[in-house]
Design a protein that fits this description.
Blueprint: H1 3-28, H2 49-80, H3 91-116, H4 120-126, H5 130-134, H6 139-144, H7 149-167, H8 179-184
């Protein structure tokens, strides 16, 4: 057997022995029952209150930035260009994209509010905006029907969230989500 294949065989045998040994050891621990599988956390879990606050601001900024980017790219810009008006070229596709962006924006703003609750400064700054964010819930349907006033409501709410974030030390910049993010809603 050549040297590289021999090394591979030794490594494979060693890995299998370690795997079998660790599985046997795990089943003998405790009451003899096999251990329940554990699932790794998808997000980092902060341990101190300072870390919780830092992560809260970071997640708030990420969610609010995606909401702001979606609003600007697929609602406000087409509205200013007159693409929601009857007879505009590509109006139907623009309305569908705007309705998707509206639902996405509402979803990300709700997530941003949940994130802000981990930081006292952010939660105080966003408290007056919860009614405005909740008011966005029905606007994607209005956008889908071509109601241009809904675009202004989205833009106003996004600007208020940006101001609240800036006053709490968490400035928000627009980040345009991908089309797949819009379709998934996250």
């Amino acid at each position: 057997m050549p040297a590289p294949i021999r090394r591979l065989a030794v490594a494979l045998t060693l890995c299998c022995a370690l795997l079998a040994g660790s599985a046997a050891w795990a089943t003998t621990q405790g009451n003899g029952q096999p251990p329940s599988p554990t699932v790794a956390a998808a997000t980092p879990s902060p341990t101190t209150s300072a870390e919780k606050q830092k992560f809260a601001k970071t997640r708030f900024v990420a969610n609010a930035a995606l909401a702001a980017g979606a609003t600007y790219q697929w609602i406000w810009k087409p509205y200013k260009a007159g693409k929601f008006k009857k007879g505009a070229h590509g109006r139907k596709l623009t309305l569908v994209k705007a309705a998707l962006a509206g639902a996405f924006t509402y979803n990300r703003l709700k997530a941003a509010v949940r994130n802000a609750q981990g930081d006292p400064t952010l939660s105080k700054a966003l408290a007056p905006l919860s009614a405005a964010i909740a008011g966005l819930k029905g606007l994607p349907a209005k956008l889908g029907k071509g109601d241009g006033s809904a675009a202004g409501a989205f833009n106003d709410t996004i600007n208020k969230v940006k101001e609240a974030g800036k006053s709490a030390g968490a400035p928000v910049r627009n980040k345009v989500p991908s089309t797949s993010q819009l379709q998934r809603g996250s």
